[in-house]
Specification:
alpha+beta; Arc Repressor Mutant, subunit A; Helix Hairpins; two-stranded antiparallel ribbon
């Protein structure tokens, strides 16, 4: 991984982004040049938000520049902002200047514009700090890293591109890491053509002779593929390397990149498939996760791994209607990788088979780290503070950290569910966390009542009554539950 601090050079930005993504880092990446500062916030490797200290990059100036609000609206919103201390976006929404959907869309464009500026920097420094994010300052957006890199390097000057490329005698091969190989990166026709010619035996010079699109377009495509980390320098020398390449080639070709440039039929993971796969993880061993027999060959294990990694890659489900699947996809992808790492090593596989036969596991899940309770309580307090201030996104982030640090605390899970219930399009996640809290502490009447209220607010009367009835079974004398039943029964 690149050093956590250093100078910005031609390839620094895309490699930094991809390294943080690969390591699933959560933290803040600060870029500075003269008096200009840009912060990019990451959560589990995803780009979440960005901010700049320049006036021209502020949301209000951006909306004015793009014609989304008028001078009069900006002035009125600024007055309210100064007198109340509230966020400009929230003020504009309440004024009716922007709908909730328009606001999210425009903030995403503003953040993207800020990040793309960094790709043109040829000097300056960067500094990465991991840890909890400044929750009150950010609005989680989740931006595709791959497409962002393509946009960022597309307009680079040829001199900078050529300087960053390796010698033309360098042999290139496709990446074998599914996280990089199957990321969301919409390659154009030239980039797809070049990618299909990279096989671990051809040099950059030989690829230029074969593409038919000219040296300039070929080298530019290679630069983008290297920036995305979909391609790496080096030959495929061993038989093992060649087998991996063959599997990678077959998996990639079963989709948008085929030799004839005609999309082949491809299975996409539906919401139902994701939920079923996720819910099955707890009772599955590594062989079952990869859907292979215990006597499966290494080639069969590799094929299963790449197929599933592509199917459940978190990047391939960035559409808004699948946003609530993000955590489940992350968990699925990690477990698939864990199964592959174990079964692809004969030593690890032998030990795992011994553990299976003896009914033992090497899992360390749920063990608390020293000091975790104190850190969890700090995050929980921060979450309650953010919730009271109406920053439900920030509250949810803090409660998530608290639950990670102390996974046995039902209250952390419950409060996260309440925060999720206040965030648009996160109702499914809210329900899941409220139900989980009840499973962890079934005698807590408040949890049942909150779940019932959530269903009632969502118009699910039958589910609400069922939740209230469960609460009454545990405390028949609860007046607040009885009042809730009477209210929904009118």
């Amino acid at each position: 991984m690149i050093s956590p601090s250093g100078d910005i050079k031609n390839m620094t930005v895309p490699w930094l982004f991809q390294d943080l993504r690969k390591e699933k880092e959560t933290g803040t990446l600060l870029f500075s040049r003269d008096k200009e500062k840009i912060e990019v916030f990451f959560k589990n490797g995803d780009i979440l938000f960005a901010s700049s200290n320049l006036k021209e990059d502020r949301l209000g100036e951006f909306l004015l520049r793009t014609g989304k609000i008028t001078d009069a609206q900006f002035d009125k919103a600024s007055e309210i902002l100064i007198s109340t201390g509230r966020k400009l976006g929230a003020v504009l929404f309440e004024m009716g200047a922007l709908s909730a959907q328009e606001l999210v869309s425009q903030v995403k464009l503003q953040v993207t514009e800020i990040i793309l500026k960094i790709f043109s920097w040829r000097d300056g420094r960067y500094q990465y700090d991991n840890g909890p994010l400044p929750l009150a300052e950010i609005i989680p957006l989740h931006i595709s890293t791959g497409d962002l890199i393509i946009s960022g390097v597309r307009e680079l000057e040829w001199k900078g591109v050529r300087k960053s490329l390796p010698p033309i005698t360098t042999v290139l091969h496709p990446a074998t890491d599914p996280l990089l190989l199957f990321q969301t990166a919409h390659l154009d026709e030239d980039q797809q053509t070049v990618f299909l010619l990279i096989d671990g035996s051809r040099s950059i010079q030989e690829i230029c002779l074969l593409t038919g699109i000219g040296d300039f377009n070929t080298l530019k495509a290679i630069y983008i593929l290297l920036a995305l980390r979909m391609v790496e320098a080096g030959e495929l020398k061993t038989d093992e390397d060649k087998i991996v390449y063959k599997v990678v080639r077959e998996t990639v070709a079963a989709g948008e990149m085929s030799e004839e440039k005609t999309p082949a039929p491809e299975v996409s993971a539906t919401r139902e498939m994701i939920l079923h796969a996720y819910e099955s993880l707890e009772r599955q061993n590594h062989f079952e996760v990869l859907a292979v027999d215990r006597g499966a060959s290494q080639l069969e294990i590799k094929k299963a791994y790449f197929h599933l990694a592509k199917l459940y890659h978190p990047d391939r489900h960035f559409e808004s209607e699948m946003g609530d699947m993000k955590e489940k996809l992350d968990t699925l992808f990690s477990r698939i990788h864990e199964a592959y790492e174990t079964l692809s090593s004969q030593t690890k596989r032998d030990q795992y088979n011994i553990d299976l036969r003896s009914g033992e596991t090497n899992s360390q899940a749920g063990r608390k780290k020293p000091g975790a309770d104190d850190a969890a309580q700090t995050q929980f307090a921060e979450g309650m503070k953010q919730f009271s201030q109406g920053n439900f996104w920030g509250a949810e982030e803090a409660f998530e950290w608290a639950a990670r640090l102390d996974p046995d605390n039902a209250e952390y899970v419950f409060q996260r569910g309440l925060a999720l219930a206040r965030i648009p399009r996160r109702g499914h996640d809210a329900e899941e966390h409220l139900v989980k809290a009840i499973e962890m502490a079934p005698q807590n009447i408040d949890y049942h009542l909150a779940l019932g209220n959530f269903y009632a607010k969502s118009g699910l009367k039958a589910k609400a009554l069922a939740a209230y009835q469960d609460a009454l079974l545990r405390d028949p004398n609860s007046e607040k539950v009885r009042e809730a039943v009477q209210k929904i029964s009118r």
